[in-house]
Design goal:
This protein is α+β, with helices and mostly antiparallel strands. It has two domains: about 100 residues, Orthogonal Bundle (Helix Hairpins), CATH 1.10.287; about 200 residues, Cupredoxins -  blue copper proteins (Immunoglobulin-like, Sandwich), CATH 2.60.40.420. It has six helices and nine strands; from the N terminus they run H-H-H-E-E-E-E-E-E-E-E-E-H-H-H. It binds copper (II) ion.
């Protein structure tokens, strides 16, 4: 069944949780196929059996046997089995067995009309304080990060819509939204979770393949809902560490004149990921890291010179 679904456009699943969800999908499709064929055949049978030529007068009593009741009951029982024995366990696992936060990669995603904001805690593993009152779109502070908070100093906020993940690690996404209800969906990971204003909902998964795919908003959230797409980039573990470190340095240097080389290499790394070449992506990311480190050193030297100039 799964093969048939794949042929009709059902994507492969690239998370450790995909197989269980795909198996439920297959069973649902099998039941629906049986129902479709069964009811279709019954419909054709009645068209012929009760055609006007054979029964010119309507029979007010109608059917007296109970076959339809039995088949309805059988369908109801099958649906209950599907729900209780197949769907509930899979769903319970998804919402209750959240991995230990200490061992997982915890990332915040804050939806907004019509972008995905991604927030990493940085090296200290502690998220800086955020406050809706601090949101300042003109200053590019889309999530209201309190920049005076010590824990916020090393937080990493990548370009909107770009979620970076390591392969084969448990990921916990703490999801919320700063305006209306959105729905965070990564079809290839079989992840879909509504984002509700005012609360933070955890959703988790374990990517099993490197590459780049789309994040969609699965909730009609306004007039530009269609353009609310993002990207999930699954790096090798080394590639991920280097990528995040590079982003941190670029953010610290905060001067494109110094970091443009590193930023170009990062872009090329993402292109390589998209082309399914994770080792090349890792190589380019490591190159970006050393370029970013050089840029930082260069800026420090220039900074010293600036100070000397001021002393003069
Ligand atoms: Cu949306």
């Amino acid at each position: 069944m799964l093969e048939l679904l794949r042929k009709s456009g059902f994507t492969e699943g690239y998370s450790a949780q995909s197989a269980a969800i795909d198996s439920v999908m297959s069973w649902v499709h099998i039941l629906m196929l049986v129902l479709y064929v069964g009811w279709g055949a019954f419909f054709i049978y009645t068209l012929i059996r009760f055609r006007q030529k054979k029964s010119p007068k309507a029979d007010p009593v109608g059917v007296t046997n109970h076959y339809s009741t039995y088949s309805e009951a059988a369908v109801a029982v099958l649906e209950i089995v599907l729900l209780v024995a197949f769907s509930f366990p899979v769903w319970a696992n998804r919402v209750e067995n959240i991995p230990d936060r200490a061992d997982a990669e915890v990332i915040r995603v804050i939806a907004q009309q019509f972008k995905w904001n991604i927030h990493y805690s940085g090296e200290d593993g502690v998220f800086g304080r955020t406050d809706p009152g601090e949101i300042n779109d003109l200053a590019l502070n889309f999530i209201g990060l309190d920049e005076t908070d010590v824990a916020a100093q090393d937080d990493i906020i990548p370009t909107q819509g770009h979620l970076h993940l390591p392969v084969d690690r448990d990921i916990i996404i703490d999801l919320t939204t700063r305006d209306v209800i959105h729905s965070f969906a990564i079809p290839v990971m079989r992840v879909k979770q509504d984002a509700i204003p005012g609360i933070r909902i955890p959703t988790w998964f374990t990517p099993t393949k490197t590459g780049s795919w789309e994040i969609a908003c699965a909730q009609l959230c306004g007039n530009s809902h269609y353009e609310m797409k993002g990207y999930v980039h699954v790096h090798t573990q080394e590639g991920y560490a280097a990528y995040m470190k590079t982003l941190a340095i670029i953010q610290e240097v905060d001067d494109y004149d110094y970091t443009y080389e590193a930023e170009e290499s990062l872009k090329k790394a993402l292109d390589a990921l998209k082309a399914d070449d994770a080792s090349k992506a890792e190589e380019l990311t490591l190159q970006a890291l050393s370029q970013a480190e050089d840029a930082q050193a260069e800026q420090e030297v220039a900074g010293d010179e600036d100070e000397e100039w001021e002393d003069w």
